[in-house]
C-alpha cells in the first residue's frame, strides 16, 4: 500500500535504487536503459561524478538562501552562462523550479510587459492544438491538450488555439514546406486579426513538440514566418523549450536551428538534468528594460527560485555538456537512432513515422500506413508498450489519449547525450522488440 498518489493506484511500481550512466537499477537488481531520460530530463545519464561533486561542494557552502535576502555565486554564474549563449537579446534570466513554473512566469511576464508598456488591453494568448505547456492552471489553460484540460475548464483563463506544424499529418500532397509554413503563418495572422491585434499579448509554441505529439519538429521556415506575423502585430513570441531545449536537439536552444529568437524562452528538464529540480525563463532586454523603467520589477516569485544547490548542479551539468562537446554526439547519435529505427521497423505496418531532431526522437503508430488512420484507442497501445519496454529493460515515453478528437499513439525516445553508438543500437533492438511484441503485425 502506497500513500503517494502520483500515479494510478492500480499501477505497481518498482523502486529505483541506483543509477549509473544510461542505466537505472530496481530493487531486484534489474537494469533498465533510460532511453527517454525519464521524460527527456536525464540528459547526462545517472550518477555523473562531476555533478555529484558540484552538489556536495555547494551543500558544504550554502544549500539555500532566500532570493529576497541574498544572491549566490552559483545562481549568478548560471545566469551568465545562459545569457552568453542564448539567442537574440535574451539577456535576463529568472530561475524557477520546473517547466510549468517557467511557462507560468512567461505568461505573467508577457502580461506585465504590456501593462508597463501602456498597452493594458493586450491580455489574450494564442497557442497551438496538440501542445503541452504544463499542469498549473495558467500553463494548462494555454496548452492545447483537450484531455488534460477538460475537467478543469471552468478554472482556466480563456486561451486561443491554432494548428500545430504537423507535416506528417497536415502537409498536403505536393505542398512544399514553404507553402505549408506560409499556410500556418496565415492561420495565425487570421486568428490575431479575428481577436483584434491590439488585444493579443503573445503566441506560445513548443519549438519541437514533445509529450503530445512525439518530437514533432517544424518544417524549415515555419518559425521565421511565425516570428514575422508576431512582429507585424506587436505580439510577443514565447517559445517553450522545457523539453526540446538545453541541447536535446543538438543545439543548446532548439530555435537556433530555425534561426529565430523569441522574446521569452522557457527551459527546464535538461537544465538540471534531473540532478536538481530547476527551470528558467529568459527574457529579452526590451521586456526587462520596460518593466524596470515602469514599476521596477517583475511582480512574481517563488520560495525556491534561484535555489543555490539547484543552480550549482545545473551549472555543472551545462559545463560538462560543453567541456565534453556532447552536442556533437547528440547530432551524430540522433542521426544513427532515426536511421536504425527506420531500418528495424520498416516492415512493421503500424509504424507510420520516425522523426525528430538530435536525440529527441518520436515514433508514431497508425492503423494503416497509407491512410494514416489512428490505432483503435481501446487497444491501449501506449500503456502496453511502456509495460513491455520495462519488461525488456528499456525506459521509453509512449503517449496516447484523445487530442482534439484524434487519438494519437506515439513513443518518445530521448536518450542521454553520453550514449555511445553501441548504446543506441541496443536501444533500437529493445525498442523494436517491444513494438513487435505489443503491436501485432496484422
Ligand atoms: N512544457 C513542456 C513542453 C513540457 O514538456 C513540460 C513537461 N512535460 C512542461 C512544460 C511542464 O514541465 P514540468 O513538468 O517540469 O512542470
From TrEMBL:
<dbReference type="InterPro" id="IPR015421">
    <property type="entry name" value="PyrdxlP-dep_Trfase_major"/>
</dbReference>
<dbReference type="InterPro" id="IPR015422">
    <property type="entry name" value="PyrdxlP-dep_Trfase_small"/>
</dbReference>
<dbReference type="GO" id="GO:0008483">
    <property type="term" value="F:transaminase activity"/>
</dbReference>
<dbReference type="InterPro" id="IPR049704">
    <property type="entry name" value="Aminotrans_3_PPA_site"/>
</dbReference>
<comment type="similarity">
    <text>Belongs to the class-III pyridoxal-phosphate-dependent aminotransferase family.</text>
</comment>
<dbReference type="InterPro" id="IPR005814">
    <property type="entry name" value="Aminotrans_3"/>
</dbReference>
<dbReference type="GO" id="GO:0005829">
    <property type="term" value="C:cytosol"/>
</dbReference>
<keyword id="KW-0032">Aminotransferase</keyword>
<keyword id="KW-0663">Pyridoxal phosphate</keyword>
<dbReference type="InterPro" id="IPR015424">
    <property type="entry name" value="PyrdxlP-dep_Trfase"/>
</dbReference>
<protein>
    <submittedName>
        <fullName>Aspartate aminotransferase family protein</fullName>
    </submittedName>
</protein>
<dbReference type="GO" id="GO:0030170">
    <property type="term" value="F:pyridoxal phosphate binding"/>
</dbReference>
<keyword id="KW-0808">Transferase</keyword>
<dbReference type="Pfam" id="PF00202">
    <property type="entry name" value="Aminotran_3"/>
</dbReference>
Amino acid at each position: 500500500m502506497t500513500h503517494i498518489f502520483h500515479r494510478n493506484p492500480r499501477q505497481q511500481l518498482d523502486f529505483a535504487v541506483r543509477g549509473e550512466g544510461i542505466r537505472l537499477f530496481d530493487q531486484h537488481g534489474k537494469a533498465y536503459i533510460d532511453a527517454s531520460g525519464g521524460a527527456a530530463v536525464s540528459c547526462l545519464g545517472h550518477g555523473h561524478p562531476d555533478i555529484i561533486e558540484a552538489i556536495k561542494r555547494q551543500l558544504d557552502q550554502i544549500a539555500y538562501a532566500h532570493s529576497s535576502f541574498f544572491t549566490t555565486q552559483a545562481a549568478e554564474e548560471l545566469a551568465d552562462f545562459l545569457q552568453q549563449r542564448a539567442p537574440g537579446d535574451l539577456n535576463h534570466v529568472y530561475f524557477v523550479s520546473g517547466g510549468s513554473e517557467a511557462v507560468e512566469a512567461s505568461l505573467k511576464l508577457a502580461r506585465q510587459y504590456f501593462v508597463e508598456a501602456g498597452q493594458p488591453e493586450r491580455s489574450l494568448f494564442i497557442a497551438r492544438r496538440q501542445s503541452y505547456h504544463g499542469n498549473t492552471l495558467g500553463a494548462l489553460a494555454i496548452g492545447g491538450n483537450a484531455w488534460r484540460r477538460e475537467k478543469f475548464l471552468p478554472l482556466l483563463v480563456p486561451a486561443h488555439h491554432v494548428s500545430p506544424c504537423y507535416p506528417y499529418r497536415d502537409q498536403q500532397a505536393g505542398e512544399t514546406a514553404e507553402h505549408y509554413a506560409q499556410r500556418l503563418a496565415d492561420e495565425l495572422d487570421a486568428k490575431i486579426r479575428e481577436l483584434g491585434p491590439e488585444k493579443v499579448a503573445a503566441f506560445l509554441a513548443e519549438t519541437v513538440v514533445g509529450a503530445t505529439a512525439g518530437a514533432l519538429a517544424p518544417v524549415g521556415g515555419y518559425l521565421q514566418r511565425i516570428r514575422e506575423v508576431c512582429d507585424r502585430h506587436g505580439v510577443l513570441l514565447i517559445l517553450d523549450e522545457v523539453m526540446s531545449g538545453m541541447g536535446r536537439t543538438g543545439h543548446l536552444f532548439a530555435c537556433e536551428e530555425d534561426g529565430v529568437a523569441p522574446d521569452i524562452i522557457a527551459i527546464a528538464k535538461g537544465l538540471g538534468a534531473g540532478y536538481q529540480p530547476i527551470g528558467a525563463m529568459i527574457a529579452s532586454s526590451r521586456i526587462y528594460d520596460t518593466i524596470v523603467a515602469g514599476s521596477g520589477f517583475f511582480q512574481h516569485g517563488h520560495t525556491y527560485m534561484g535555489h543555490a544547490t539547484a543552480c550549482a548542479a545545473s551549472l555543472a551539468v551545462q559545463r560538462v555538456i560543453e567541456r565534453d562537446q556532447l552536442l556533437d554526439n547528440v547530432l551524430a547519435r540522433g542521426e544513427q537512432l532515426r536511421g536504425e529505427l527506420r531500418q528495424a521497423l520498416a516492415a512493421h505496418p503500424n509504424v507510420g513515422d520516425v522523426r525528430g531532431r538530435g536525440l529527441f526522437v518520436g515514433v508514431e503508430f497508425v492503423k494503416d500506413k497509407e491512410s494514416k488512420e489512428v490505432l483503435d484507442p481501446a487497444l491501449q497501445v501506449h500503456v502496453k508498450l511502456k509495460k513491455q519496454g520495462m519488461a525488456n529493460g528499456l525506459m521509453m515515453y509512449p503517449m496516447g489519449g484523445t487530442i482534439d478528437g484524434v487519438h494519437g499513439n506515439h513513443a518518445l525516445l530521448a536518450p542521454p547525450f553520453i550514449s555511445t553508438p553501441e548504446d543506441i543500437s541496443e536501444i533500437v533492438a529493445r525498442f523494436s522488440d517491444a513494438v513487435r511484441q505489443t503491436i501485432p503485425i496484422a
